[in-house]
Write a structure and sequence with these properties.
The chain is α/β, with parallel strands linked by helices. Helix content is about 45%, strand content about 20%. The chain has helices spanning about 10-35, 45-60, 75-90, 90-120, 125-140, 150-165, 170-185, 185-190, 190-195, 200-220, 270-280, 300-310, 345-355, 370-380, 395-410, 420-430, 435-450, 490-500, 520-530; strands spanning about 5, 10, 120-125, 255-265, 280-290, 290-300, 315-320, 340-345, 360, 385-390, 410-415, 450-460, 465, 470, 475-480, 480-485, 510-515, 535-540, 550-555. The strands form five sheets. It has a six-stranded mixed sheet, with helices on both faces. Strands 5-6-4-7 form a four-stranded antiparallel sheet, sandwiched between helices. A four-stranded parallel sheet has the order 9-8-10-11.
Length: about 550
Amino acid sequence: MGVQGLLGELDGPAVRRWGRVALELLGRAREEIDALNVYPVPDGDTGTNLFLTLESGTAEVDALFGADLPEPDLPTAFRALAHGALMGARGNSGVILSQLLRGMAERFEAEQTAARASGREVPAGLALAHALRTAADAAYAAVARPVEGTMLTVARAAADAAAGAGEEIRPVVRAAATAARGALARTPEQLDVLRRAGVVDAGGRGLTVLLDALLAVVTGERSAYRIHPHQVHTPVPVPYADPVGSEEDAGGGPGFEVIYLLDAPDDALPALRERLGALGDSLVVVGGEGLWNVHVHVDDAGAAVEAGIAAGRPHRIRITHLERVLVGTAAPEPAPTRGIVAVAHGDGLATLFAENGAHVVQAGPGRGPSTSVLVDAIRRTEAREVVLLPNDADCHAVAGVAAQQAQAAGVRVQVIPTKAAVQGLAALAVHEPGRRFDQDIVGMTSAAGATRYGALTVAVRESWTMAGVCQAGDVLGVIEGDIAVIGQDQRETGTVVVDRMLAGGGELVTLVTGSACPPGLAAAIERHLRATRLGVDVMVYEGGQEVYPLLIGVE
């Protein structure tokens, strides 16, 4: 027995799809959300914190899916999402998000247990509405002094609307997403610090993104909602605002954010909450079953950690100055060098980038590296200036977050928006470490932008494309990310794709063969070009990438 309705069934794979879409949308909205962040501390990182928290959760869900693993059910997948978010929660907003996900996970588990006991399926819309209610209640309970006009308010509005939307999943999701946007628009009326800054609540905005992602997974609809300039003003610096609206609103406020995981029994939590509540504010304690995530803003960071020691075993302790300076470590003097970090799908591409001086991060088929992996690669360059080549449109959001994380540690990082490996190779070819960083970035970006990119792949199922309907096994010619040609033969289709790409001009064609590239394919296309386009040079490399038998670049 289970829960029906979401794309046929509200199940584990649906949770995985939601997490991935939500991460994609959060990546796109991250900078916008960061710019809205003026409460409780105007440190401009709410979007980044939400992204990193959700990234940790989705990684734990992905680990449940494998060739040798049974497909997880809904409670198992949601429990993994919540646990991963708890373990990787960043900032006040990330900790609250982890509790929202935990509340949903616990309610879905209870719904499934009840369904098995009664022998009756639970309507998906009703189950989701119950989960949103439990999530909102759990989040309010986790915050020591809840404040209206925050993501808590938005979560409750979504739950209220879902409760009256019936039993079908689609109207429930639409109602929740619509109500969340309405509640977000009203947050400046509820919280004076938002009204004075001319913004809506950043955490609430992040929550609307998550609900929009769920809407996309359930209905296929993509919300166009975003914060437009005419709706809010550019955020302005404001004093620290105490959650209870005390005289501290005029300035000052605790100096440190303290976050740690805590192994402790449930009965130790009341005393911990009381002790931390007396030390500072923005106190949020989430979790359960002996594992908790503790977040608080204090002046005495040591006392906050000691409170955790008195309650149990704190670990993964993170102390951050509220002006975004890491406490407890002196920043080492960076080496006066410039580094390149490049993402590569395939051993051959990894070798190409490495031979041209890049520090390579290898990515699996159809899956990019995590933020932490990119940050570690940036750190290992030991350079104070780093150029990051994501080489995949889907990797841009993660690259942007990694760059921001590294910049907070004193490294100047610039992401070149390369959407394919051939653009990364073109950018790397004009890299000149001896010129000024800004000039180098302009040159590399121009080279990448002047490189048109294409590819060949094989359809795995029947599908609608911009070139018509394709069947499983058809050869698909991709140009600039869109399917432009449907064929039956890779040589013929590849030739058509290259000719179309050269229709706008070009002097150099780069062909990168993948692990599934048929023997002679690149050579056949090269012969065609030498016979028909005498002024065009051709370069052929073995890339070893798995998804695309052939990558094509035209400069």
